[in-house]
Amino acid sequence: MLTTYTYPKFEYRTPPEIADGKTLRVPVVVVGAGPVGLGAALDLEQQGIPVLLLDEDDTVSIGSRGVCYAKRALEILDRYGVGDAVCRKGVSWNVGRTFFRDQEVYNFNLVPEPDHHRPGMVNLQQYYLEEYLAARAASRPNIDLRWRNKVVAVAQTGKTVTLKVETEDGAYAVETDWLIAADGARSPIRRMLGLDIEGKVFMDRFLIADVVMKADFPSERWFWFDPPFHPGQSVLLHKQTDSVYRIDFQLGWDADPEEAKKPENVVPRIKAMLGDDREFELEWVSVYTFQCRRMGKFNHGRVLFVGDAAHQVSPFGARGANSGLQDADNLGWKLKLVIDGKAPAALLDSYSEERIFAADENLVNSTRSTDFITPKSKVSRTFRNAVLSLAKDHPFGRALVNSGRLSVPAFLTASSLNTPDCAGDSFAGRMVPGAPMDDAPVLENGGPGWLLDKVGNRFFALYFTDDPAALDTATVAALSDLSIDGIPVQALVISRKPGRVADGMPSLEDAHGIAAQRYDAKPGTVYLLRPDQHVAARWRRLDAAKVKTAVARATCNA
Amino acid sequence: MALNLNPNFSEAGKRYFNAYAPGDEFYEMLINTHRDLSDEQSELLNARLILLLANHIGDIGTLREALNVAREGV
């Protein structure tokens, strides 16, 4: 088989504890250096927490696996310092075509909404994402990244989690205050702690192939329902980087995975799909089944579960790595406050609650897609085919075609960390308490940038005004004094006109009024923003006492 | 009343942040209503459902249009 990618082999170093026999004592251990574990480590490191990151392997994901990274994940990756690398290497696609039997039913063009830094999604093989994250982690002095270090035992007593870690040179012990389990769908940590994860296995199998096309092929997503070259099943073709295309064939439950994977069986399928004249080479083939399930809660004492270890969804809609990165995004700042003694451990319950809400939304959406793509009964298939036959001519039919819904972040509207709008304040638009922030173009000192790059990692109070130079001293003084009990709240003025705020307070210019429009802001409007770029509260006029109360609420200090 | 062929699902008092959500929600309810029925039972359920919805719409002109659109594609 061809290879367009050279897998890195990360260096194993003998842990010093093997020679000195001492127990290693650290504040946080992350187990699993996949995209989510690496993300969690980078998040905490940016908060100033040293992290020990352990992985039993010494390379990145084999085969493309995760393919599609959605806007919110890209914004989080920006915060972790790898957003540019991922977007540079990844490919964008806007046109999707849907086929039913031998006909194209319709196509769509997801023209990105203008004035956002990141597009709706980019496609990129997972190994690239992991490579960039691993390189970033390796460059951070506060991350102790140990490859080929396998956790073989875990125990939790009181406020300490004890691990036994095995290497080729022997075993050593680690004691930690907090353990983040990012060790994947089969999570050995979860199993060793005897914790359950509940849900169902879908009775279906999929063959996935990475194929290198020899000639140009459009950057589009093609989805077939019941195509002549693979009757009764579905097929997905997706563009990736390096002329590698990802093809997913639904096989049905009765297929023999070992037989299906053999090149002599895979190649004819792809030939039938592409037509015989198009040249290609196979790069990687795998067969997978999937489960939809999640843990009852994601925090168990001092052990916190993130990503596939906590929840698994069907692959339709790219909700695995995308939601896992959002787990890391949600957890990092909360764990930092708890470690620093500035928030009670109850704040970690909100991690579980908020991410369970998001996981359930992902489960609902991916299950709906799965049920549409692979109908489980005759009547379900009839309805599916009826939708596809209506889609050709009628817009309502097109809206019902569900070949996977793009991963979008959950609006955490029910979170106990939110402060509801005051009775007299009315706001239009989407930026409700609990909403993931919308991006907007801004100018900083006259230079172009993006709102989301200017906030995050701590609380911000975003204050909208017309003319920054005209802000009165009382307002500036109030904005300068919003922190509570050692929890910093950074004021950031965002103004329609250029200029500077007295006192050197940071400010952004919203030259085209796009931020004001997206946040339905008027002069005097204040947004309290969480370190993970979610709206915590908002007001039509600044009242420092209300902001402080909202900060207390958002940190379980109320 | 002309037959509405544009996406039209919603629920009073419910806020949707994604355009596809209400349609997907209806479709899920529809498929779930058929769960564990035999093919024959499902056919009966569908017939009952069509009669209920047709009576609710009431307007014969709209129903005639819907019947024609449905028949065209079969």
Can you describe this structure?
The complex is a heterodimer of chains A (558) and B (74). Chain A is α/β, with parallel strands linked by helices and 558 residues long. Among the domains of chain A are: 16-90 and 121-197 and 294-367, FAD/NAD(P)-binding domain (3-Layer(bba) Sandwich); 441-554, Glutaredoxin, CATH 3.40.30. In chain A, 29% of the residues lie in helices and 27% in strands. Chain A is built from 16 helices and 27 strands. In chain A, the strands form 6 sheets. In chain A, strands 1, 2, 7, 8, 9, 10, 18 and 19 form an 8-stranded mixed beta sheet that branches. Chain A has a 7-stranded mixed beta sheet with strand order 5-4-13-14-15-12-16, with helices on both faces. A 5-stranded mixed beta sheet of chain A has the order 25-24-23-26-27, with helices on one face. The model of chain A has no long low-confidence stretch (mean pLDDT 94). In chain B, 61% of the residues lie in helices and 0% in strands. Chain B has a domain at 37-74. The longest helix of chain B has 19 residues, at 39-57. Chain B starts with 20 loop residues before the first helix and ends with a helix. Chain B has 74 residues and is an all-alpha fold. Chain B is built from 3 helices and no strands. Chain B has helices at 21-33, 39-57, 60-72. Chain A binds chain B through residues 364-365, 368, 371-372, 377-380, 383, 387, 389-390, 392-396, 399-400, 402, 405, 408, 411, 413, 430, and chain B through 4-8, 15, 17-20, 23-24, 27-28, 30-31, 34, 37, 39, 42-43, 46, 69, 73-74.
List keywords for this structure.
heterodimer; A: 558 residues; alpha/beta; FAD/NAD(P)-binding domain; Glutaredoxin; 8-stranded mixed β-sheet; 7-stranded mixed β-sheet; 16 helices; globular; B: 74 residues; mainly alpha; 3 helices
